[in-house]
Amino acid sequence: MIRSKIAGIGYYVPEKVVTNYDLMKVMDTSDEWIQERTGIVERRYAEKHKENTSILGVKAAEIAIERAGITNKEVDFIIFATLSPDYYFPGSGVLLQRQMGMQGIGALDIRNQCSGFIYALSIGDQFVKTGMYKNVLVVGAEMHSCGLDFTTRGRGVTVIFGDGAGAVVLQPSEDENRGILSTHLHADGDHAERLSYINPGSHGGVFLGKEKFGYPDQEFGGAFFTPHMYETEDIYPFMDGQHVFKFAVTKFPEVIHEALEANGYKASDIDMLIPHQANLRISQFVQQRLKLPDEKVWNNIQRYGNTTAASIPIALCEAWKAGKIKENDLVCLAAFGSGFTWGAALIRW
Ligand code: UT7
User: Fold this and answer.
1) Whether residue 242 has its Cβ less than 6 Å from ligand 1
2) What is the domain extent for residue 247?
3) What is the pLDDT of residues 152-181, one digit of tens each?
4) Residue 306: which CATH number?
């Protein structure tokens, strides 16, 4: 059987460092609260008017493509995961493609938030395994900083998120025992609004029990954006943090065990766990449940915050660059987030 392998990996984080103390200047929060609840010390914000989500993605993709030993022209499919796209439509995939001179090949956009990279990786894996494509570029990129509420009202969400991008190139593996062993994807839409950014959208308040929400007084049609949304400040992300936390600490270990069992492994076989960087407390909980020592779990949320679809490829690339992932190591990627969606990938490096 053909397996796909990660042939090249790269990441990019913007230069601008925003510390907890910087956020304290604009909202009622504290370094102590943020560190104690999330582990975050600082995050990066992209440069306004110069950078956007696809540009961050391009910077990570260029490195991944170079490390894969190919040129842009050899990429034959793009998968771009983000919840903070440049435009409502078209997706950031085509914008990355245009900047990288790869016009003509397919570009797919993935909207699975914190699990976006795992979903994107899984799709890329299927394309390579079936022999349809030989060089699939998978990108996870986010520019959260332009969509957050920087007043005290938004502090429960805003302090957590940061900007960044990561990318991998998938190619067929020459060794059938190495590469992506399996991927496992899940979702439960019952919790859709518990972590959401509902506008702009066609929802019209239907699931929220507000029948006329968002629709102007006209005979036909509605509007994705209405003055009502601005008035009620329904233009920012919402998170029921405790509800998300509760599910995250259950679903992370569950899906990791599912991936291990599918391949005949147990937790102690993992050489490196790369959890989505949602909250250091969640990662520590998962680590304890799996009884993994510190050196087998990579955490960088302290420096970058939660970069959603970008967090796994950034962390994976950092761990690899630091020499913590070696040939033949068993690497487990796992994510949980908005949707709810969750998933895992097991890789023999
Ligand atoms: O990657 C996507 C998936 N997301 C997650 O996995 C996030 C999961 N959830 C969490 O990580 C945590 O729930 C948070 C870190 C978001 C919040 O921590 P928490 O311990 O659940 O706090 P809370 O929301 O229950 O708020 C506790 C208190 C509240 O004050 P009162 O009502 O007790 O007076 C909040 O108003 O902390 C207050 N608070 C803050 N105080 C200072 C909320 N945000 C802040 C803040 N600074 N930034």
Assistant:
1) yes
2) 179-190+239-348
3) 999 999 999 999 999 999 999 999 999 999
4) 3.40.47.10
